Structure formats: C-alpha cells, structure tokens
Amino acid sequence: MPPALTLAPHRALFTTGALATLLPMLWWLLELLGRASGMPLLDHPVPAMLAHGQWMLYGVFPPFMAGFIFTAGPRWLGVNGPGARAFAPLAAAWLLGHLVTLAGLVHNWQWLYQSGQGLFAVGMLGLCGVWLGVIQQSRQPDRRHAWLVAAGFALGAAGALAGLGWALTGRAELWSAMRGLALWGFLLPVFLTVAHRMLPFFSANVLQPYQPWRPDGLLSAFWAGSLGHLLLSLLPWAWPLSLWDAGFAALLGYTSWCWGVRRSLINPLLAMLHLSFAWAALALALSALTPWLALGAAATHALGIGLFASLMMGFVSRVSLGHSGQPLRAAPWLWRLYLALHGLALLRLASDWLPPFAAIGHLLTAAGWLLLWGIWCARFVPLYCQPRADGQPG
C-alpha cells in the first residue's frame, strides 16, 4: 500500500471504494451484453442476478461509509480517528474481497466466490469493532448518532453473514435476509442517521438565516420507518407495508422540505446532499405503490442509485475536497457528473416501467454507471495518493 494511503482513513478506504464502484458493474455489464447477444459470455457458480445484488450492496457502499465515518465521526465524538493499524486491514479485506469475488464469478469457481463473500463479512465485522472502539474513547454526553451508526453496522454485518450463508448453502431465504438487512437495517438507516447529523449542520454554514429543523423523535422515526419496513415485509399481506411506506415517504418528503432542499440550490456542493436526500421520499413512495402497480425493482434502484449512490458521491466528494486542501466547492464538472447520476437513476427506473425498453435500459445504465464513476475516480483517486495541497497533515 502506498505510504500516502495510510495517512488518514479516507485515503485508503475511498481508494478501495473507487475500485468497488467499477469492478462489480464491469462484470454486470459483461453479463448483460451476453444476455443481449443470446450468447452468454460467462458461466457463474451462483445465479447472476442474485450475485449482482449481493455484490453491489456489500461491495460498493461499505468502504466509502467506513472512510466517511472514520473521518467525520471522531469529530462528533471529540476523539482521534482510528490509526492505520485499524483501518488498513479493513481496506485490504474489502479490496481482496472484490478481486476474489470477481475471479470466482469469471472462472465459475464457487469456492472462490464464497471466499470473496467471507472477506466482505470479515470487513463488516471489522468495521463494527473499529467503530465501537472509537465510540468507547469518547466522553461526549450526546453519542446518539454514533451509537445508531454502530447499530446499523451490526445489522449490516448480520446481513453479510446471511449472504455468506447463502453463498455456502444456496438457501434462498438467506439471500432474502441478506437483502432485507442490507437495505432496511444497514444502508437506509445509516444514511438517514448521517443525513440527520450533517445536512442541517452544513446548511447552517451556507444558508443565512437558517434554523436547523431536528424535532425530538425525528431520528427515532427514521429508524422506526426503516426497521418497520423490514418487519412488515415478513407479513403475507401487502397493504400494511404499503401504508407504512406511504407514511414514511410523507415524513421524508416533509423533512427534505424543512431542511431547505429548494434553498440549497444556490450552492451546488450543498445541493448535492439535499437533492440526494429527496430521493428517499420518492423511493418509499415507489415501494408503497409497487404491490399495486407492478413496478418491479424500481423502488430498490431508487434507493440504491438515487439515494445511496448519489448521497455517497456528495458526502465523499466533500470529504475528499476538504481533506486534500482543495476549496470546498463543486466544480462544474463535478456538478454535471452528479446530475448525470440522477439521470442514470431515472433511466434505471424507466427500465422497470417500460418492459420493451428493459434490456437496452439495463445496458445503458450499467455503461453509464461505469462512465460516470470512472470519471469521478480519475479525478479524485490521485488526491488520495498525494500530500494535501495546503500542507496540512491528514
């Protein structure tokens, strides 16, 4: 590992995350091309669709989330961040997990694919351990956000273990548990927790006058909405889950408005966070409608691309600029790239709504993802390998 990558957690973990945005989608694009041509290019040890879901959920997001929380979280808690001995093994586990997973899928070696999922699970368990260690150093009276992030990481680790169990046994219920825990126990509640902490804070620094809107119980309502979906999805009836998601969508939409999504447009770097958060309400609304309108995987991709991926781009770009000594502003190229990612999310949703368009829509989405994240990686990864432009440490 280049020495510069060990200077701060975000350097090593964002570099791993950058690779994670490309490898899974490159494999998926090859799979889609094979399907479109009628001549599959690859044989796989597990169903390709299920491998795609598992790899995206547990391969793409965790390294970025770890890099962000190890950078911002210690500031919440008034402690030092983890050292290289703590974060470098996590980056290595996730990096090796990607390479091993890819090799297993390309060469049709089930044991190698299983090993890759085992490495992802090790990474999640290690993430839990390192973050708990950071929290325990703190004497801050309010550690709610930190503890809730830890709870999300723990549920994410449980989901990763369920995914490993599926890879080992092929039991469909384990894959379903992996997906449910990843989306509704890990990714959504953690992203909402971080947004609750950071969006009003960043907005107050830019928008004047600005009164942060964080009523008592809002954070608990976010978690109740997400975990409630997870539990209600186990019922044999669709209507309770639809009603729950509709109410959750209304809460998220109202929160987005109160936090100032419209006013944020005066500052592109801030707008990147607010516009991404607005996807949460849309995704839950789609989830509420799915049983009645047969929307396919639209709600899942509204979460995965519209909310998670775009919010990840917003937060990670902000940290990357600030901690490389660059000005905290979204350059025109970054703003256009970010808006294109929203367009990509809409394209993927259209693929579910227009069945005749599905095959070409899936191909264009995969190719567009690789193009957008390839540009992002080419611009940001070099920053992680260089000293800060302002001469500061970190």
Automatic annotation (TrEMBL):
Origin superkingdom: Bacteria
Keywords assigned by UniProt, alphabetized: Membrane, Transmembrane, Transmembrane helix
Transmembrane segments: 12-30, 55-74, 86-106, 118-135, 147-168, 174-196, 217-237, 243-261, 273-295, 301-321, 333-351, 357-378
InterPro entries: NnrS (IPR010266)
Stated name of the protein: Uncharacterized protein involved in response to NO
Source species: Rivihabitans pingtungensis
Organism phylogeny: Bacteria, Pseudomonadati, Pseudomonadota, Betaproteobacteria, Neisseriales
